[in-house]
Amino acid sequence: MGAAAVVGLVAACSAPAPVVDVPDGPPAVTTSDADPTPQPEPASETGTGTGTATGEGTGTVSDVAGVVVHDPAVVAPDLPPHELEVEVPAPVEGESVAVVDAWAGFWKTFTAAAGVPAADPAALGQVATGEAFGSAQGYVDHLVETRLRIAGRLVVGAEEVTVSEGAAVVLGCSDARDYEVDGAGVPQEAAAGLAVLRTELVQEEGVWKVSRWREEGPC
Prior knowledge:
With 219 residues, this protein is α+β, with helices and mostly antiparallel strands. Helices cover 20% and strands 27% of the residues.
């Protein structure tokens, strides 16, 4: 999402009043229905222009004269996307299959939301609950408010899956090659890099959902 500003200037034009030689004696008085002296045209109160924050289309003129403001949620097509790479190096079986599917579904939903940024609470609620839901929703809201988004690539791995009654833990090495960017695609931070990622899940009405995640030191 980005914002562009275009300032247009409109110059008012007026012709100089004609110079008339006045003879000696009382001036002659003439009347006419038409005023022969051209009047200056009023200057425009708002500027005009076209923004290109999304690479196409026209912006919406704001209340400030001459400024074109674009929806910060619109991503320019030439800006880097936010991509997710999921790695499951070892085969999983039994209930671990459903756990890994739910784990991957959460990171896919969160990654997509942070890249726009825009979060659909209903979609997020299908893959997250509790602390994880609040943290993910809150972070995307923060991106929207600050007119930032996430770009780059996030790699998450499921190297160890532990399932107990109604709870599960996925451990793996993550490689955060993603970072916050502004509307012009300029990075606002450095990528975090490698870290051990612990993702906890719980079952709600038979559905696995992520309830919490955190980093636990370097890989």
